[in-house]
Every structure is written in C-alpha cells, then in structure tokens.
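B., you asked whether I could sanity-check this one before it goes into the benchmark set. Here's the sequence:
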Amino acid sequence: MVRKAILAVVLAMASVCPAWAQDEKEAVVLHVTSKLGVKTKVKVKTVHNPGVFAGFFFEPKAGEQAPDLLAVDRGHGLYITVPLRQLKHIVNGEKESVVTLADGTVHNGQVRTRIIPDPALDDSEPDGFYLLSKAAEATNLGPSKPKAPNPERKRFVLKVAERVPGKGLVYPPARTFHVYHPGRHDEKFRFPMIVNGEKFEVNPADFERIAVFKKDKEWHITVKAPEAQERTGKLNADNLRIVEAETITGARIAMPLTPFDTGAIEFVESHGFILERHVVTGK
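And here's what the prediction gave me:
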C-alpha cells in the first residue's frame, strides 16, 4: 500500500511539472577536451552568465525554475541563450566557437557561459568557475530533445541584419530564425511607432512585414499590412531597450537597440531586423 501511495504521488507530480523542469533535477554531464588534449567527464554543478544574459532571458513563470542557460554572442548585436541541456557540441576556434544544438541548429560566435565542473578542471578560475570557451571541445553526453513547436502560437520569420564591409546591411540565412510573437510569455508586445507626430502601437500579428532599421542615428520602422501600402515612421525606442523573441525550438534571441556595458560584457546595439509573417505552403 505504501509503495502504491508513493507511486501515485510521483505520477501526480510528473503530470503537473513541465518536462524541462523534470530534466533540471539531473546534472548536465559534459565531456570536455582541453586545448592540450586532456579529456575529462564532468558534471555541471552551477552555471553563470554575465550581466543581462542572466536577467532578461528565460524569466520563469510563477512556480517554475529557470533552466541553466548557455549564452552565445553571435556578433553585430545578436545574442542567444538556450537551455544548457539543448547543447550537443561546442568546438572552440581561435576567433569564435561553433555551437551545435540538439535540434541541429548551429550558432557561430563567442560562448559567454561559465560553469563550476565536478570534478574541477586544471585551468578552472580561482573561484572554481570554468569558461566553456577555454576548452578545445565540449560535448553534452545526454542532450535533451529539442522543444516541440507549439501549433497554437503565432509564428514569424525573423531576419537579423549584419553589417558587411563593402555591402552594407545583409540578412544571411545563418541569422534567420522561426520565432513566435516577439516578447516574453504572452503576445502583448507592441512596437511603439510615431508617424507625423501621431503614436501607434504596432501589433506584429496584424502585419505581413515589419522592418526595423537605423537612419540618421535614429531608429525607424516600416510596416506592411495585408492589401495596404507600406508606412514608415520613427520607432520610439526610449522605453524599448531590447527586442526579444523565442524560437520555435526554445532558444531566446535578444537584439539591443541601445549599447550598454554591464561591466562583465559590453552589449553592442543591433543593426536592425525584418519580421515577416510565417506562411504555410503546401500540406
């Protein structure tokens, strides 16, 4: 009887706990190869990310525990975080890292995450932390399955700009993402737009295409509603420091509209982006 009662409690808890919350009960295990070729299997006891990486990504809902995050600086004002369990493999080069996730997504950039490994690694910092970008490679020995897309949420295609010498702004495929409605947990986010002195709240769901770009040192926004002409105005960025979005497989994207320095890391401003309504073709 006691065993049956315990089993019933366990099953009840499993039914109300988010899947990723259940995963968080077990430590992530990494196989780390140092730049001298030493291979070590470690458990991740603690994760630390600098500045706003730790604050404005994955704000947990009431009753939920935020997952340990892997933070990647993609350059040109594009920042990514993803639950560490979604990591598959990291290869660190001289100038940048190649991060492969469980869903096959690849991010090239600077890994900003520090961990406390168990056991400690030879080149850990005095406080016990180890910067993952110091390793030659790191492999997650038990990556979790990628987050399944939610068919109930509105989807968009986000194209993030990059400035290339001699070409200006480009939108490469590697900086294109399938995302939900911008913002955090709900779909209340609006772009504040000013046209000829009149203020508007732009709901992304109402438009086929939204482009945010900087001109003459000011942010502008162009919107295209179905069966309507494009309209361009100023983006009121005074209270819009960062634009965030969640990819359909659970990564978080941040694009600062204002550069700022947290002391631990300098966040540069984005070069802008294009947000298009996701169109389903064929079935």
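One thing to flag: Confidence is low (pLDDT under 50) at residues 1-22. Otherwise nothing jumped out at me.
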